[in-house]
Amino acid sequence: xxxxSLLERIGDVMAGKGFYIVLFLCVAAIGISGYYLISGFExxxxxxxxxxxxxxxxxxxxxxxxxxxxxxxxxxxTATPKPTAAPSPNASAAPTAKPTAAPxxxxxxxxxxxxxxxxxxxxxxxxxxDETMGDWRTHSGIDIAAELGTSVLAMTDGKVESVYQDDLMxxxxxxxxxxxxxxxxxxxxxxxAVKAGDSVSTGSVIGAVGSTAIAESNxxxxxxxxxxxxxxxxDPEDFLP
Length: 241
Description:
Elements: H1 6-15, H2 18-44, E1 118-120, E2 123-130, E3 135-139, E4 142-145, E5 151-153, E6 158-166, E7 170-177, E8 181-188, E9 199-200, E10 205-208, E11 222-229, E12 232-234
Antiparallel strand pairs: 1-4, 2-3, 4-11, 5-10, 6-7, 6-9, 7-8, 8-11, 11-12
Region (Disordered): 62-101
GO molecular function, one term: metalloendopeptidase activity
Domain M23ase beta-sheet core: 138-236
């Protein structure tokens, strides 16, 4: 015999007594619901709440008003303009100075201190015989023949450095010139025409030809002339015209 499934057995029950059981349960549920509904109207009356619990109703007071808050707009601060400095009436653009070329150095002009023949030349390497001293020696200048009392002139512009009496060369005048040059005039007359510190120009009279140089007394009347460049004796004829 074939066994029925669960669904088939439930269907048989519903087809038989089960139908009446379900109908009974539905009627019972409706009756219970109606009972509780009627009981609620009898005990609470109309408007009574079905479920318990206190209800609090807050009514607003007619005198209590919420103050109205109005936002006051604060005006933004205005910027105060800064005063501008007025241009000074005296302020003016300074003119640009044009560079000026440096003046060219003045070229020294030389002249012969006396006019005459060179009787003894410049000699530092070759010994020359000295008639007065009777020996052979160097000669650091030149001897220019000239009569006693002949005016002696400054070779070029300069300043008198010293005036003195030399034991061998007699009355001597030393003049400083630009460029480290010095001129020495010896065998002058006892009293020269210049003194130390005097400024002289080319051709200025500084003294006269004399006979005060003992070391050259055996020679003809003459001027002994020396030229010193940066401390070293040089040939005066290299500078004279």
